Amino acid sequence: MKSVFILLITSQFVWSSQTARVLMVRGDVTQLSPGAKNAKPVKKGDIYKEDTSVLTGDKSVVRLKFADKSVMNLGPKSKVVVSKMPKKKPNMINLLTGSIKAEVEKKDTGKTKMIVKTKSAVMGIRGTKFQAIYNAQNHNTSLVTVEGKVAMVKKEAVEEKLVKEEVVKETANTEVLDVTGEAPKEEVVKKVVSSDEELDALNNAFDEVPAEEVVEVDAGKFAGVQEAAAKPSVPVKIAPTQYEALAKSMGSNKKAEDVMQTSDAEVEVESLNDVATEGQVVQKPGGYVDVQTGLYVPPSENAKLNEKTATYEVEKEVGQIDEATGDYIPPKGVKLDAKKGFVIDQKELAKVASKEEVEKTLAIVNERNQEVKKQVVVNKMQAKQTAKTNSKSRPSNIGFEFTPFSEVLTLNTGEGGDSEFLSESAYDVLLTYSKAWSDNWKSMFKLGFVTYEFERSNDGNYASTDGGDDFIGIIDTHQKLSQRWSLSYELMNRAYYFAYPNDNGEVVVDSVALSSIAFGGIYSWRTWKDIKLDLGGKILVFLPEEKKLQDGSSEEFEGGGINLFLNGYYQFSGNLSLNGNLFMQSLTHELPDAEAEFERFTLGSGLQLNYAL
Questions:
Q1: For an engineered disulfide with 97, which of 136, 259, 369, 420 has Cβ 3.0 to 4.6 Å away?
Q2: What's the rounded Cα separation, in Å, for the pair 574 and 257?
Q3: Are the CB atoms for 136 and 104 separated by under 8 Å?
């Protein structure tokens, strides 16, 4: 009886001091105790000390419970080192590869209860349920919070706290000292701190590093650390379907609409860019987080906004969610590679879908891969070159634009009897090329011609006049300020047609090439089904130029005006899109020497077909 009592006391002491107990094990799971050379199978009921490493095989999981009642599930093909488990300080988990799901008991102490570190990030947990992922191939760390809140910082921001400086003094050499009279030299060297010092440094790091280096990830949100990015990404909400499945797998009954509820979805989405600091990546909310690669699969550019959760809806062709685990499942015939992004197996894809479904899936996956690949950096040299490589890999488009319009041209000579001319069969035809230079800058180049035909309207008498064709050249640059607002800067040279009566009452038509600059704003108004609508306006100013007319005289042209427009975008597939626009323009052409001016009022609509390269 006495021996049993001693055994129970000893067992309780071991359990309560710096240990973790195995609650459940499934599949091939091994552990390596500190100092041991050979790994051993993990069994239910095992108790492990600090610095024990645990490794799971394919389709294998293990659940550990710590003395502070925190619980951690280690997913398939994962490895952790349970580095520190002190009584009055946080547990420290080193996630070397794979994924963990953990629940940390919440206490009103305001202290960090667990620290999870990877080779690229450090996470501080005070009381919450969360999933952390680290992929050793692309060095991405991904975090999804299910309940509570988790702080996250890039490891580089705290690395200086993980080393210490020591002064090393050379051993005195009496013979040398007698000859040179020099004392032994001192050298300052840097050494890695001990595990106890590391725990203290990381525990204090979230209060000591600059606030802009740390992100706090609320329930329902994802944030990631990518090697090329200077900071963790701005936390964004994941797909509601994935959140609910993930929450259920961790014993939470939280619903997406309760956790993600919002009073104004459009304002919330727009604010993501406003809160981002320099070096932060902003992802589109509503995407899927892949457990295998740590990559985030965002919704498309034209995805529909869910007003209840402030997330965008992902197309079914991009994949689905495992309802039991919350894991992302790519579409059949498609794999998500840690370094390459989406990889397509044409043969497998053809087996499971019709030709139309295959084409649609390919188009959507290829388009989405442009965003996914931005998250993949596999070494530090590549990280330094990311800015250059991204500029080459950013999407570009070629297109064809046809814009018919009607126009009223009024000549005012200041002497009364204004002459008014109406356009007939006027239109622009343009070839376009657009290029995104960064997440915030995009340029469009347009070349083409304009065709006019005029009718003169004076007291009901019309005289048809052919205007001909002439050149248009446009450089238009957009600067993205937020999710909703962009600025537009335009430089244009185009032919304008001027109709006026000569001394014989005949209509004369002159083609005059004028240069102008324009500045304006664009507001992303709303998304309706698969159509995205923008509102905008710009102020246009003509550069003063002297031009020769048909009668041999020269006139100096000045002036300016405004342009208001509504643009619509519809994505047929990953590569093909259709843009439409309605616009109203009012311009004034001043001729100071002739003491006259032309007023030009234009209404038009256009269609532009784009193909993504």
A1: 136
A2: 29
A3: no
Are the C-beta atoms of residues 581 and 565 closer than 8 Å to each other?
yes
Q: What's this model's pTM, rounded to 2 decimal places? A: 0.63
Instruction: Report the sign of the C-alpha dihedral through residues 364, 368, 373, 375, in that order.
Output: negative
- 84 has pLDDT over 50: yes
Query: Token digits for 253?
Result: 């009954």
* φ and ψ of 206, to 5 deg: -70, -20
Predicted local distance difference test score (pLDDT) of residue 24:
96
Q: How far apart are alpha carbons 570 and 530 in whole angstroms?
A: 6
What is the tens place of the pLDDT at every residue in 511-531? Answer: 899 999 999 999 988 766 668
Query: Mind giving me the DSSP string for 425-461?
Result: SEEEEEEEEEEE-SSSEEEEEEEEEEEEEEEEEBTTB
516/492 Cα distance (integer angstroms): 5
b/e map 26-65, b = 16+ CB within 10 Å: eeebbbbeeeeeeeeebeeebebebbbbbbbeeebbbbbb
Continuous H helices in 236-354: 240-249, 256-259, 265-275, 346-352
pLDDT band at 459 (very low <50, low <70, confident <90, very high): very low
Phi first, then psi, for residue 145 (nearest 5°) are -95, 130
Closest CA to 144 of 249, 233, 217: 217
Q: How far apart are CA 369 and CA 353, in angstroms?
A: 20
Domains and CATH numbers, the chain: 19-163+192-275 (2.60.120.1440), 394-612 (2.40.128.100)
CA gap 575, 370 in Å, rounded: 11
Question: Position of tokens 């259920």?
Answer: 248
